[in-house]
């Protein structure tokens, strides 16, 4: 594929992204006779999908006549579509990048690499415009005549050609408005690359886009205004064919020959891998109502962590396909409550069923850890789908969407790690360790790096007598941001087990992260990979046997880089 056929475009100042589809395809559809803007006038979550009510404004390019119609946009559908295209494009661009960096010995290959490099250099210096190419093609094929005199310009044209906009609009997560003053705006961060260094990536041309036919050819078009009557203005690229709105029928005039083509500068999509991944993961999380996830590297040129090419983001669900378990367990096996009094141990069947005999959460939904001195993590039985209570029930927290925005960032010594751009209070529930559930026996035979993202669901098991049905969550090929949590011997997160999807006997509890202390924005989130070793270490220390050499270092341990005073010196990383 020629990179010129697809266009990525950012408008960093505005924090807006748009993506233009293959322009020649669209052109054949003869729908390029209008410019569009779109205002978001409302939003609604229907069947779990975020929908934007929008008003399109179209301007006929030939005569400047305009029309307006209402429409509905399924935000997720647009974002997903864009994310897929971006991923594909980024991949292709990366392939080319790798290919040209190869020490090629074959003459033909080398010549092609040189030609590509030359083309890329030229394009950076003199941005290539799609519209010019397309117009030339059309003229060549007798489908267009040389461009007529420009039509009078209309109100600022905020539309970009093609489909669709990447990144969940800030309202999708509902979190941005809560971002503390001065703190990064979460969903905006996913759309605005301004803060991220991209030391190895070619810098984009300074002109974002141009118009083919007008005297403004080399001048940037007016920036789309984000000011509306108290409403946020989001720029969507228009759909390739007339918008899917019955109310728009009959209002549009389609010219047989397009007279003008909006021009876009072709950018190197290699710049966008980090933002693409951020947008993709944020979109997937947003689908579950969870806050944004951003990839950040202030340290070196590694754009994103190494992930399987078909890695699937799972915000709060498991992939059960590798085990025989039926999900969810039959209703008749669940204990559930009927009278909505879930703060009262005597009234709520779920609370009654758990060891603590009390709600595990305070009024603000923060986890109250009563198991600090215990060997095993707490087990919380939350109300479930069969209970009479709703999502406001105090005994439902781990199952609710994550509220804290996440940054996956490059650490100095431990690869990628996790932090949040906002302060986090002690007891805040952060999210679940997700991935593919595999039988423990299958996890145990995994070797080396394949084991790096395994988390045994063994918190409550007797190590001497594990049950027959014991499982591990493997986040190597699917999972979420928690797979990037690093170990620290003095950690600020811990895990408890929670059950609401399955019955306790299934041994498939959710692994829930919560903050064990107040955590300042920007501080790395860490947890102790091996709390049992921590306990052993403490006991030995108490007995006066200090020092690393006194404890038998388990197989698979590596030197610990947590750098804390409490560092035990090594950490077990492979389960
Ligand atoms: C679950 S992954 C954590 C995410 C990982 N940093 C990454 O970039 O994908 C576990 C791996 O992180 C690294 N790691 C985490 N904590 C560490 C620590 N305290 N010291 C050294 N390496 C650590 C080890 O390479 C380990 O195998």
UniProtKB/TrEMBL annotation:
Residues 333-401 form the Pre-SET domain. InterPro entries: H3K9_Histone-Lys_N-MTase, Post-SET_dom, Pre-SET_dom, SET_dom, SET_dom_sf. Residues 556-572 form the Post-SET domain. It is found in: Chromosome. It holds the Pfam family SET. Residues 404-530 form the SET domain. Gene3D superfamilies: SET domain (2.170.270.10). It comes from the Eukaryota. Keywords: Chromosome, Metal-binding, Methyltransferase, S-adenosyl-L-methionine, Transferase, Zinc. PANTHER family: HISTONE-LYSINE N-METHYLTRANSFERASE SET-23, HISTONE-LYSINE N-METHYLTRANSFERASE SUV39H. This is SET domain-containing protein.
